[in-house]
Amino acid sequence: MDFKVVFETLDSVCDQTIATLYGPDDLLYSNVTKRLVASMRQIQEHGRALEPVVAGFTTVYHHYDFDAQTPGNGYRTLVKVLLSCLMHIINKGRYITSNCHGAFFRAEHNAAEMEAYCKALCQLRALLYLAQRLLNDNERGQLYTLQDGALSQRFVQEYTSMHKACFYGRCLGFQFTPTLRPFLQTVVISMVAYGESYGKQKSGLGMAALSLLTSGKYVLDPEQRGLEFERITQNLDMQFWKTFWNLTESGLISGFNRIASNTVQVNLTITVPPVPLRLPLASDPSLSTTVSPPLAHSGPGPVHMRLISFDLREGQDSEEILALSRTEPPPISISLVHRPQRLPPSPWLLVHFHGGGFVAQTSKSHENYLRTWSKDLGMPILSVDYSLSPEAPFPRALEECMYAYCWALKNCHLLGSTAQRVCLAGDSAGGNLCITVSMKAIASGVRVPDGIMAAYPATLLTTDASPSRLLTLIDPLLPLGVLAKCLNAYTGTECQTVKPTLCVNTLSALSSDTVVLLESASNWIQSFIDPNRTTGGWGSSSSSSMPRRSPDNDAHRRSTRSPHTSLTNSAVHWDYPENFEPLRSEILAFVNPVACPIVKNPFVSPLLAPDNLLRGLPPIHIVASALDALLDDSVMFAKKLRDMGQPVTLTVLEDLPHGFLSLSSLAKETEEASNTCLERIRQVFQKRDSPPFLHN
Where are the domains of the chain? Predict the structure, then answer.
C-alpha cells in the first residue's frame, strides 16, 4: 500500500470524525465524546510526526533485503505493522463517523477501542524511532548491532520499561491475518488465566478449574487481559513457560482448534541406546570414523525419536526396530488392521528437529504437520526428541541430534528407507539444530545431508538489537522477556531455575482431569469469539458493561511512566524527539540479556560462525515470516551464505507469526505456508538446485 495515501486518509478521517462528533446536531457531547475527540487528535499528531519517518525508511530499506526478488527485513516489517495499525484506525474512524448518531452506537465501547489503538500507535512510534537509531548506527545492509553491545543493552533497558499491555488487549493480533486473531486471543486468554492460577498450592485439577473460572473476566475485559499478559510475559519463571507450552502435548491446542490429522500406518516411538557408531568417512568410504553417543552434562544416555510413515515399508515392523520401541500412552501405533502390503524402502528420508525454544515440546507437538508431510512426500520421517533446557543446556541437544542423524544413516533399513537422499528439516530451535548438525557432520567427516529446510530458524542466540527484534514488544507468541529466558536456558545461564525432578518431555505437573477440563474451557472461551468481527473489536463485545479504568492518554502517561533512573544503576536517557515519550509500564520487566560467552560459539549461533565452518554446507532453504521477530536472523544468515558462494534460498511469507507450522491446520494462510516448506523439501529430494539457486 502507498504510505502517503494512508497518511493522507488518516488525517482526513481524523478531521471528519472530530467534526462529526462536535457538529451542531451532535447529541453525544459528553465525557465519552471528549475521550473520542482527544484520541483522534492524538492519533492525528502521531500520524503527522510519523509520515516523514516512514518516508525515510522506504527510501533505504531495499538495501537490507536478501535480493531484489525477496523483499523482506525488519525495517519493512515495522513500516508494514505501522500501516496495518493505521488502517484499523481509519476503518474504525469511518465507522464512528457514520454511526455515532445511531440509536445502537456503543459510545463507550468505541471510545475504548480508539484509546487502545492510540496507545498502540504511540508505542509503534517509539519503535520506529528506535529503528531509526539502528539505521543510523549500523553499516548499510547490516541488520544487527553485533559490534555494539552497549547499544543492544540500551535497547533491552528501553524494553524493560515500555508499556506493552495495549498490544495484548483490544489490539491483540492486529498485524496478523484475520483468520488467526481468534486463535491468538484464545491462547492469550488461556495463558493469563493459567498464569493467575500458577504458583498457587493447587492440584492440577484445581489449577484448571481456577483457569476456567478466571478466563471469563479476561474475555470481557480486554484491558485487564493486556495488563495481566504483560505481567506474565515479563516476570514469570521458566517453569511456567515449560508447563504451559507443553500443554500442546495434552491435546489442548487440538482441543482449541479440532485439528484433524492424516492417519498414518506407522507412528512409532523408539529409544536408541548410547553406543558408539562407526560410519564411513565422506571423503573416503573405505575408511571410517567413530561417532560417540551424547555425553554432555549427564554422561551417556539414550536418544528418543519418533518414526512416522504414511505407508508401511520394509523394515518398519521388523523385530529389531520394535525392540527399540518405548511405551507411552496411547500405545505404540503401527496400524496393521488389515495387514497392508509392505512397500519397498523409500529412497528418501526426512530427519526432523522440532521447535520449542530449546525448552519445551516434543515430536508429538509437531506430529500433525509431520503426518501430512509423510503422506504428501511419500517417505518416512524421523523426528528427534532431544533433551530440553535448562535441565540439559548446550551442547546436549546438539549431541543428541547429531547422534540421531548418524544413527539414521547407519540404520536407515529399519526406517523404511535406503537414505539415497537425506534432508534435515526443523523450525525455530529445530532450524538452528539442522544447521549446526550439518556443521558437526562436516567437522566430523561423516556424510553431510543433501539439503536443509529451516523454517524461521534462530541463528543468533543473543539479545542483540535488530529492527525485527523490536517486534518482541508487541508479539503475543515471542515477547523479548520469554525469548531471553529461552536463550539463557539453552546457553546454561539459567540451568538452576527449574527443579530437576520434573520430567522434561511430559506433563507431570498436570493430571488427565486437568487436560479434559482445559479442553472444555477452550470450547467455552471460543463461544465468546466472533471470527468475523473486524477492526479491533474481537473479544470485547461486552466491554461497555464492565467497570472501566481508562484515563486519558496524558493521565495514563503520567501514572505509568517510570523514571529512567529506575532502569539500571547506570541509567541511559534515550533521545526521543522533543515533546514525545512512549508510555511506560508500572512494573519493570526483568530481562536478563544473553551475555554468556557460549552464545558466540558457532554451534550455538551459526550466524557468528567463521566461513571455514560454514563452507561445505548442503543447500539450505530458509522459510521465514515477515512478522516474525527472528526475521532478521534468516535474512542475515542467508546473505552470509550467499556471499560465501554457498547454495541458499530465502522465502519470506506475509502476515504470519513465528511458529506458523504448528498452526498449519488453522487457516488457509498457514496451510499454504506449510506447503511452501514442503515444496522446499521436495527441491532437496528432486535435486532442483540448479542455477539460479541463489535466488528465490
Answer: 266-339+343-460+605-685
